[in-house]
Write a structure and sequence with these properties.
The complex is a heterodimer of chains A (about 160) and B (about 675).
Chain A lengths: L3 H38 L4 H9 L3 H16 L10 H38 L4 H27 L6
Helix pairs in contact in A: 1-2, 1-3, 1-4, 2-4, 3-4, 3-5, 4-5
Chain B lengths: L5 E9 L3 H11 L3 E3 L14 H24 L14 E3 L1 H8 L2 H36 L16 E8 L5 H11 L8 E8 L4 E8 L3 H10 L3 E2 L7 H27 L5 H23 L1 E2 L3 E9 H12 L4 E6 L19 H8 L10 H16 L2 H17 L5 H24 L6 H10 L17 H29 L3 H22 L3 H6 L8 H21 L7 H12 L2 H10 L2 H20 L6 H42 L17 E3 L5
Classes of the chains: A mainly alpha (about 160), B alpha+beta (about 675).
Chain lengths: ~160, ~675
């Protein structure tokens, strides 16, 4: 069982990438359906609604980021194999990104979908439409921040 | 700052000069015409609805004709050209071309007629194809489908919805035959599949009724009508399809011959767009039998020029200052550096009367914040070079596009700067390439300040510092606005107390060991300073509590409202914490670039490895650049709109919408602007 630490760390990394990615996938999917609907009526709005559709996509990238930092520290892509205690901490450190990314991705997707509706009716309000989904993303960023700070701060001696 | 001062303008002239005056105003594009209200004086408005609808319709027709040309005789346009705005043309050549406008519209009508014919032919083809589909099941028949028999025989051609051969169908018929007697009928199977069997039934005329009744009972469906033998008809239809195709081709070629008329159509579309706008303006005029009267707004800087220009046309022009309580429109004017911010401000809301134009102030912060979020020298250089190239190459860009390109140009400079500070050039590309392909791990792109990957907490502290400066700048602007409005009470109560409260608390926090440790600061303020700052903070807090609820009459309510106001300190906390996104997004850019760099080296050090690296490097970094530029743009806007504007900006100004050439392809030049 000397690799339990590694297992826990990789599990955490996997969940961070997987759940945040799933959240983004659902979010981008929700927004994409609205975007496609708008483009059937107004093909010229394509680039605007595409940007709005992409906004919930960042959670997946943040998840990938957290996973990559972990993998590069625990001996998969570099670094040393962690002890069991360290592995547990890695696992815990990945959780904010996994949970925050998953839920905020879905929620941001719904918000983006409404923002796309806004742009469809009032093209000139694109600037404001972009801000509403960005408000949701704040919490994904905070989750990312906590995950990163925790991972960087894991002591080597435990 | 650079909110243009508005003047009220009144223009009065004779009706015979009306068209001339409107043309001049439209080309000058500096007057917003407002609906006057002089009904009492016996002035009337002109009914322009029909005229405007007619003009709009013609503009649409010309625009459709351009669309038709684009479809059948596409014009080759480069990427750079697509950024270009309307071309300038001289007044004289405008006049000359306007004389040909009927000719241009005839072209437009001809094109739309051709397009209609093409559409008809295109619609006919699927109809032919579906007829062929129906006939396919009857191909083996060598008599026409509506053949009903000879002198002695009766023929039924049709199908049943099941899979059966001739014997099978005969059996089915016999089962259903009247009186159970066998039918004297010949079945010729024509075609069968799982869904349908088609056949021909031949019987003597005397047996026709019985046969028909039996057929009806097995749900016999008659074959589609057709005077020809099916194979012949199919051949005919195929010829017809070829004919339609040839017609489409000929018509498309004819459309293509109009390719050279594209510029004329563009002119016509713009001409009628301008006419439609002119109709709208005309509708806002007040007219009497012989004279007309325009009332509107114009920026003060153009007022004198406008006046002398219009007076040449025998009109009377009077210019007044805008009254204090008037809802005057707002227009921003900024230089090269802060000009791009106008679109950022506009997308939030234009400044109201008491607001300053925040463009200049947000410009500095905007570029700094954007640069911190992207913070990669490589990406910054790409932005600078790409946007610089576009700015140099494309002369008459659409104003909105130009602002965006400039915004990215300046943001790119800042991004490059922060990239050097934090040692990021396409992530760690320099080090990766040197290590993997040249075996020189000592070569790296070293930070001028510190490596944000290794010291994230230091960057976090820096992000908070930037945030505090940003937010306090907002408070100072509010202070300035309140002092300018001579509202000294509010200046002290709403700004000074809060600055004492928040500023004191921040300084106090810096004297607390736990907090400096947490932010890994290398200094700590002495307890004496901390104590003094704490006192200031408490004084500020007391001030906020005592004055926060000053609108309420009841002292208890006032105190409670004050307490609630002091609770607003939590929003300050969350505002400052919000700037941690600078760290998160900055790290994200670098880390993702590193991921791709590392992925790229997986194929090892060989010719294939190098090619693999280049491919992954280009794709990965393009994607990263795109996503992070989007992220930086969105989140910089958010910090400006939510955190910064929240401190001082009211917005709600009405946009200045001058009567102008709202055209797509051409602008007629006039000296005044």
């Amino acid at each position: 069982m000397e690799n339990l630490g590694l297992f826990l760390a990789v599990l955490g990394a996997g969940l961070a990438a997987g759940f945040a990615g799933a959240g983004s996938a659902i979010g981008v999917g929700i927004a994409g359906r609205s975007a496609a609907g708008v483009v059937t009526q107004e093909p010229s709005l394509f680039s605007k609604v595409l940007i709005l559709q992409l906004l919930p996509g960042t959670q997946g990238i943040y998840g990938l980021l957290v996973a990559f930092i972990v993998l590069s520290q625990v001996g998969i892509l570099g670094g040393n194999i962690p002890s069991t205690a360290q592995g547990l901490v890695y696992f815990a450190a990945c959780m904010p990104m996994a949970i925050g990314g998953f839920l905020s991705g879905i929620s941001q997707g719904q918000c983006s979908s409404s923002a796309i509706g806004l742009v469809a009716k009032r093209q000139d309000q694109f600037g404001k439409a972009m801000i509403f989904p960005a408000m949701v993303e704040t919490y994904a960023i905070l989750a990312l921040l906590v995950s990163i700070l925790a991972i960087f701060g894991i002591p080597s001696g435990i | 700052m650079s909110k243009l001062k508005m003047k009220r303008v009144f223009i009065c002239g004779l009706n015979e000069e009306r068209q001339n005056v409107l043309d001049t105003l439209q080309r000058a594009g500096v007057v917003e015409i407002v609906q006057g209200d002089y009904k009492d004086a016996g002035l009337k408005n002109i009914d322009i609805l029909d005229q405007r609808a007619d003009n709009n319709q013609k503009a649409v027709l010309a625009e459709q004709a351009i669309g038709i040309l684009d479809e059948f005789a596409a014009e080759k346009t480069g990427l750079l050209q697509s950024l270009e705005g309307a071309k300038d043309i001289e007044v004289d050549s405008y006049g000359a071309r306007a004389g040909h406008i009927d000719e241009y519209m005839a072209t437009a009508e001809k094109l739309s007629e051709l397009a209609r014919h093409i559409a008809d032919h295109k619609a006919a083809i699927p109809k032919c194809l579906s007829r062929i589909d129906t006939l396919n099941a009857w191909q083996t028949l060598d008599i026409p489908l509506d053949f009903e028999g000879t002198e002695k025989t009766r023929v039924f051609i049709g199908s049943v919805a099941q899979d059966a051969d001739a014997a099978g169908i005969y059996e089915l018929l016999s089962e259903k035959a009247e009186g159970g007697e066998p039918l004297d009928v010949d079945i010729v199977s024509l075609n069968r599949d799982k869904m349908m069997s088609s056949f021909m039934a031949i019987c003597h005329r005397d047996d026709a009724d019985r046969t028909e009744a039996a057929l009806r009972r097995i749900n016999f469906v008659k074959a589609p009508m057709g005077k020809l033998v099916p194979t012949e008809e199919i051949a005919d239809i195929n010829r017809e399809i070829e004919d339609h195709k040839a017609q489409i081709k000929a018509l498309a070629d004819e459309v293509a011959t109009y390719g050279s008329k594209r510029d004329d159509l563009k002119f016509a579309a713009d001409y009628y767009r301008m006419q439609a706008d002119k109709s709208t303006a005309l509708g806002r005029l007040d007219v009497s039998e012989n004279a007309f009267f325009i009332s509107g707004y114009t920026p003060a800087s153009y007022a004198e020029q406008l006046k002398s220009k219009l007076e040449e046309l025998d009109t009377v022009v009077e210019i007044y200052d805008v009254e204090a309580d008037e809802d005057a429109p707002v227009v921003l004017k900024n230089g090269f550096f802060s000009g791009p911010m106008e679109s950022v401000v506009e997308s939030y809301s234009l400044p109201c009367k008491t607001d300053i134009d925040p463009s200049k102030i947000i410009a500095c912060f905007y570029y700094i914040l954007f640069g911190l979020m992207l913070s990669d020298a490589g990406y910054g250089l790409i932005l600078v070079l790409a946007c610089g190239y576009v700015l140099l190459k494309v002369k008459n860009m659409k104003p909105q596009t130009e602002k965006l390109v400039k915004l990215m140009f300046f943001s790119g400079i800042s991004t490059t700067f922060w990239g050097f500070m934090f040692g990021s050039f396409f992530g760690d590309a320099v080090n990766v390439v040197a290590t993997k392909f040249f075996n020189r791990p000592d070569i790296a792109f070293r930070p001028l300040w510190f490596n944000s990957m290794n010291e994230p907490i230091r960057l976090l502290s820096f992000a908070f510092l930037i945030g505090i400066i940003h937010l306090f700048t907002g408070m100072f602007i509010k202070l300035y606005q309140l002092i300018k409005a001579k509202d000294y009470k509010s200046a002290v109560y709403d700004v000074v107390f809060w600055m004492m409260f928040v500023g004191g608390a921040i300084v106090y926090a810096l004297s607390v060991q736990m907090i400096t440790d947490m932010l890994s600061l290398k200094f700590i303020l002495s307890p004496a300073i901390g104590k003094a700052a704490g006192t200031v903070a408490i004084l500020g807090a007391v001030g906020v509590i005592l004055t926060g609820g000053r609108d309420a009459k009841n002292p208890i309510v006032r105190f409670l409202l004050g307490l609630y106001g002091a609770y607003g300190i939590t929003s300050w906390l969350s505002d400052i914490l919000s700037y941690s996104r600078l760290l998160a997004l900055g790290l994200a850019t670098g880390c993702i670039a590193q991921v791709f760099n590392q992925l790229g080296t997986m194929a090892g050090n060989s010719v294939f490895g190098v090619i693999f690296f280049i491919v992954i490097f280009v794709i990965g970094n393009t994607m990263n650049l795109f996503i992070n530029v989007l992220g930086a743009y969105v989140h910089t806007n958010r910090l400006q709109f939510v955190e910064f504007f929240g401190k001082f900006y009211d917005g709600g100004g009405r946009e200045f919408t001058p009567f102008t050439e709202n055209t797509k392809y051409y602008t007629v030049k006039e000296e005044i602007k």
